[in-house]
Amino acid sequence: MFINPRRLADLSLPLIIVIAAMGASRSDIRRHDNGLARTPPMGWNSWNHFGCNVSAQLIRETADAIAASGMRDAGYQYLTIDDCWQVARDQKGVVIADSARFPDGIKPVADYVHAKGLKFGIYTDAGRLTCQRRPGSYGFEELDAKTYAQWGVDYVKVDWCNAEGIDAPTQYAKIRDALLKSGRPIVYSICEWGSSRPWEWAQQTGNLWRTTGDIADRWNSVLTIVDLSSQYWHVARPGAWNDPDMLEVGNGGMTREEYRAHFSLWAMMAAPLIAGNDVRTIQDSSRQAAATREILLNKEVIAIDQDSLGVQGMIAQNSPPELQVWVKPLADGSRALLLFNRASVPTTITAAWERVGIKTRQARVRDLWAHTEVGTAADRYGAIVPSHGVVMLRVWPVSSP
Ligand code: GLA
Fold this sequence. Notes:
Elements: H1 5-8, H2 13-28, E1 42-45, H3 47-50, H4 56-68, H5 71-74, E2 78-80, E3 86-89, E4 95-97, H6 107-115, E5 119-125, H7 141-151, E6 155-159, H8 168-181, E7 187-190, E8 208-210, H9 219-229, E9 241-243, H10 256-268, E10 273-275, H11 287-296, H12 299-305, E11 314-317, E12 323-329, E13 335-341, E14 347-352, E15 362-367, E16 372-378, E17 380-385, E18 389-398
Parallel strand pairs: 1-2, 1-10, 2-5, 5-6, 6-7, 7-8, 8-9
Antiparallel strand pairs: 3-4, 11-12, 12-13, 13-18, 14-17, 15-16, 15-18
Helix pairs in contact: 7-8, 10-11, 10-12
Bound molecules: alpha-D-galactopyranose.
The site of alpha-D-galactopyranose has 10 residues, from loops.
């Protein structure tokens, strides 16, 4: 079911929820369910900051930093080595790690990550070669799944380069079956960039699926991804999430307001929160490190992403289109609201209770970036929102006596 997000503002929120629930019950019948990722996966991945420059030492230092900085306790759990760890296959076809970068192979790295109270993820490709032309899993699906299980892999990201002539739903299902057969619970992250409309089939296959091409550390990239991924809000549910790609927070290409907006939008979209910065510097005394910590460790915003109801937020008001109000229903009956200013000047944005599905006249409002109670507001709430910025709220209906 596809609903043009621009028309969402015309629908009442109760109707939107009914439509979402219809989608949920229909797809639940045939959904792939490995029992994992009941809330969107959280963790860290090497690609956005380090590219091919991965090593056992980097992974160990990153695991140390995630544990020491409070990121682990905030929920960042899966630590994933992306492309370039692998160089060849042995005579039996078993994939071999780069011995210069991983001198003892992958298993001791996974053991180290586990000893830090974290989970370990790895990357492969459904085609013949990875995007960096390392061995892909095509033709080696079961052997690779078995090898990963032996190493203690808890999460696998499967890319889509060098897959000409291969059918995505079929090939990704083959890997799903191989992972299930391995006997180890492994979160399955499908990364085919939205090229074969995964929102129509990947719920039967994986725990998350990329909806777009790669993110870049630029504001325009965030906007492009948000406009695409928000269209598929109705297919997300516990165990099966749209993936608008990993976070760029802390990588330096956006302002503090833009990074706050990026993180808030990902939380509203119930997106996987996979940090992509150098977390080894997150405890530095610099202003940039402090800003990165304030964002990645905002537990009130993380709680919106991780809410157990598992509904992806949607655009409730977007007129004019640069000034949006997003809403995400939450398990306790409250709603997260995002006032999102895409314009180049600070502007007041007002959320109207009737447009965001709040049925009482009065509602209690909390500001999730200021960490303050705003008070009780009648019928609506408006605030000045910085350019390229957000005001993120949690709103509880208050019944009148
Ligand atoms: C693709 C993926 C990225 C990353 C790189 C690695 O571009 O979409 O997330 O994994 O490959 O080569």
